[in-house]
Structures are given as C-alpha cells and as structure tokens.
Amino acid sequence: MRLSDARAIFGRGDDESGGDLVLDGAVVAQPGAPAEGETLDVSGCVLTPGLVNAHHHLMQSAFRTLPGTRGVPMSAWLPAMAAAYAAAGIDAELIARAARTGIAESLLSGVTTVADHHLSWPAGLAAEETVPLARAAAETAAALGIRLVFVRGAARDDPQEAAASAEAIVAALLPEHRGGVSPDGMLQLAVGPAGVHSDPRESFELLGEVAARHGLRRRSQANEQVDVEVAAERYGRRPIELLEEWGWLAPDVTLAHLCGATDAEIARLAAAGVTATHAPGCDVPMGWGVAPVARMRDAGIAVGLGTSGGGSNDAGHLLADARLAMQVSALAGPQLPAREVLAMATSGGAAGLGRPELGSLSPGAAADVCAWDVSGVFDEGVADPVAGLLWANPGRRPRHVIVAGRVVVRDYALVAGP
Question: Residue 195 sits in a domain of what CATH number?
Fold first, then answer.
C-alpha cells in the first residue's frame, strides 16, 4: 500500500518532511521501496503512527456520566461505580457491548492499540468460567481490527482465584505465544492488581508469579487519591514504597496515574526501570491530581498516555487527552512540547507494553498509521502542522486509520461498521 503526498510524517525519525509512505503488508517498508496494492491519497494530511492508549477500562464505556460520579473524591466514586456494576450484572454480553463501544470510539479517534485493564469480575467464578469474559473483549477487538492488550486485573478479588483465572486465560487465549503476545501481534495479555488500596500483597505476588511463568507484562495503578490515603491509613506508607517492597518496581512493570509523585519517588521509579502512563483526562477533571510528567521524563522514565475509563473520563479520545496533557503539564513542571506529547501517545505507550515495533513509522515497524487532515479551516494559519495536531482543532479525528496494513477507518467511518 502507498500513502501518497502526505504533508508531513511524524514518527519516522528526524525527517518529518512530507511525501509518500509505503507499507509492505503489516510493516513499514524501506524508503523508495515499490508499493503493491492500494494507493491512498493523503494529500493535506499529517501521518502519525497509530496512537497507543496505554491505560483504559473498556467496560466503563457502559457507565458514563452516572449521577454521583463526577467531580467527587475517589473514596465516593469507587463505591458508586461498584454499585452500578452490581446492578447491571457483569457477564460476557456486557463486556462485549462495552468493548465494542470503547474500541469503536478508540479507532475513530486514531487509537490502534488499546490496553484494557479489566478489574471487575463476578465473585465466585471458577477459573475456566472467567475465560469467556476475557474472550468477549478479545473477539470484539479482533472483529473491529484493533490491537488489544487485555490485562487480567484484580480489585478486591481473592488472590488465589485471580491467579488461577489469569492462568486459564493465558492457556485459552494465547496457547502459543512469545512474551504474552500472539504471533500476529494483535492480542497481548498482561496482569495487574488495581493498586495497593484494593489488593493485598498476596495478589501482587501471585499475579507476579503468573507473569514470570508466561513472560507477561505487569501493570498497576499508583498514587491516585484513594491509593495514597489507604496506603497511609492501612500501612503507614506511600504506595510506591509498598510496591517496591512487594516486588512490583521492575522493568516489566507499568504504573498508571502517579499523581503527585515526589522527586524521591521519581528517582526510585527511574532506578527500577519502571514505565509510566499519564491519564490527565481522568485525573484532572475529577480533581484527583496531576502527574509530574516532565520531571519523570527528565529522569529517564518512559511515559505513555491513557484515557482511563468512561466512568471517570467519559470519552476515549486519546488525542484530546494528549492536548490536555500538554496544556496542564506546566502545573506540575515545565511545559511539554507538542512533539513530546505525541511521542508519549505513540512510542511512549508502546515502550510500556514492551512493544518496540509499535508507535513508530520507521522501516520495519508495524504498519499502524493515522492520516490527520490538516487542510481545513480549523488549521488555517498553523505554521507547524505536527504541533498543530494538538494545539489546533480540539476533538479532531483521523480521516484514515490503518492497523497491521489494513484500513480499518476510511473517510472517518469504521470499515467494520458501527
């Protein structure tokens, strides 16, 4: 496939000049390589790697703008959401419907890889009975054409049951894999408790053992409002101290949120090789804090971006959240340039997933591409079209989206249907 006459190309290295981008099947071809198949006219567009939503809760797409869940402390938000889940009844049908909404929204917003930290599991299910719930999300993602990272999470689950469930999900969904990733790269599995506020040391240890056996990434959340409060009340410690003690500060671990991380904590995370995910579209409007992203990046921590779930963000528009991240960055450190935030939304998130082939348009990278039309009135007067992706036209959506060399959004519409 040839994408012809782009105005600018971000993510292929230092050269952002426009021109053509050639895809060789599911990977980006060498410059000047012959193209086979379709030629897609992207004149007037900026090309970027597909965005990587490194932290989402897809099931929350079915629970947006609920009364009593906006602008409230996390200690009130969590039980309100739990009550809504209980009233609805969590099953494979609900998970599939919510995933379809969240994934469709993601693709239409330029996200080609989404990490779904699934935390809500009906109590008392046998390990094999949890597999259909995970399969519902995986099959929905496959049908729409997005890359899915399904995180078998836990939130107040029995530690033994959570670990057995994770084992069963790996055996059923990825019987043959390398490092928790399917051979075609479209499905990845990971594990991770919600945080020290909800899960005991045993959950972290047992899920960590599952990860070690299967080469899975580990993911959790830290330093959110309630996380800090509960850690202080229950343990007399800070969350990051506990995670280090429990063996969850390591290069295979990604921590989401990290609001108000101190300089000492940032140094500890950097020394351990932990990666981070910033979720300003959740944390800022809810009043839960701001992560010191610039200081984390300056310390050498790879930082990605995530929307978090619809129960707190109400949207899964990662580019809009990238714009917000850029705008609020000065509240917790130096202002972040637009290109750095775009890198967070692409290669930064990929680093946290252990997926160097994602988030780039260099030769050999995965053929995940977004074409953003910058030729209209909303971009008039913009001197730098790459920076303008964030500064101008709030809420912009990509004209075309390609995942693994396949067009999944064409002319602003899902190819797979609504």
Answer: 3.20.20.140
Name the residue range of residue 398's domain. 2-49+360-414
Whether the CB-CB separation of 408 and 144 falls below 8 Å is answered with yes
User: Do 151 and 85 share a structural domain?
Assistant: yes
- The model's pTM is 0.97
| pLDDT number for residue 312 | 94
Contact at 8 Å (CB) between 198 and 226? no
Please say which residue of 352, 369, 390 terminates a domain.
352
| CA-wise closest residue to 306 among 314, 297, 298, 316 | 316
pLDDT tens profile 292-322: 999 999 999 999 999 999 999 999 999 999 9
Tell me how far CA of residue 135 lies from CA of 90, 181, 187, 300, in angstroms. 14, 15, 11, 36
Domain check: are 143 and 282 in the same one?
Answer: yes
The CB-side HSE value for 263 (13 A sphere, CA atoms) comes to 1
- Regarding whether 155 and 23 lie in a shared domain, the answer is no
How many structural domains does the chain have?
2
Provide the b/e sequence for 362-382 (b: ≥16 CB within 10 Å): eeebbbbbbbbbbeeeebeee
